[in-house]
Hints:
By secondary structure, this protein is mostly helical. Helices cover 72% and strands 5% of the residues. The chain has one domain (39-262). The two termini are 18 Å apart. The chain crosses the membrane at residues 48-69, 132-159, 165-184, 189-207, 239-260.
Amino acid sequence: MPALSPTFGKLAGRALITAGPALAQPHLHSFERRGLSVNHTQGVTLGVLGAYIVIIAILWNVPYIRWVLWPFKMLVIAFHEFGHAITACCTGGRVESISLDPHEGGVTHMRGGKQFITLPAGYLGSSLIGALLTFCGFNIVASKVASIVLGVCFLLTLWWARKDWLTIVTILLAVGLLVACWFIQHAEALRFVVLFIGVMSSLYSVWDICDDLILRKVNSSDASVFAKRYGGSSQCWGVIWSIVSLVLMICGIIAALAAFPQDWDQQQKDSQDFIPTVRLLMRV
Length: 284
């Protein structure tokens, strides 16, 4: 906890300095005057984000090469199933088991709950998590916090995932990648890994729904079950959920542009005050 104070104190100080004139003169319509600009650092991040969208879309559909995404896909599938499980518990249901398989996807067995909420919660839950990770991917300190949560989630997937050596090795390698990135330029590389996972999780619903309902016409998806129970077509519900996912991702990007205007140098300075890897290494 003591390490949190300097960083957040500095950020709060800069926020007060920036907001001070606007608070003193509200008639100037500060939102209108300032607008939402993109600096060089943010522009580079947006460029990387766009490249991720293209790269993941290609890897998702190319045979054999798609296994590069295996550990990240396992995590995103886990987010999807967590969405089902959490909403089931919140609506009076009970989760009996969760299973993850990179070949067949995930399955959450539950009893009770409001299926009108639990069925779309898988895609929308992973999209919300993806939007938050995308938001964190614009800042090093935020990425450090996100990476700790991601590391725990990666390890939790081993509990539900099929216990074969390849799954275990790939997930542990992914955790190792997160840890290694902490020691590269005060975790500057870490935020690009967090951004990658965020983009993949945000667009998982788009790619998966397209894969299931349009390309392969699978009839056992969440969208098809929802359509049978509540009307409409599976394609229609799939498109609606995909649009919501895209909107959440865009909101995450806009929020990040507004919240993290710091350049590379400032982000690295802030990162040195939040669990500094060099000092931590020396203490160990």
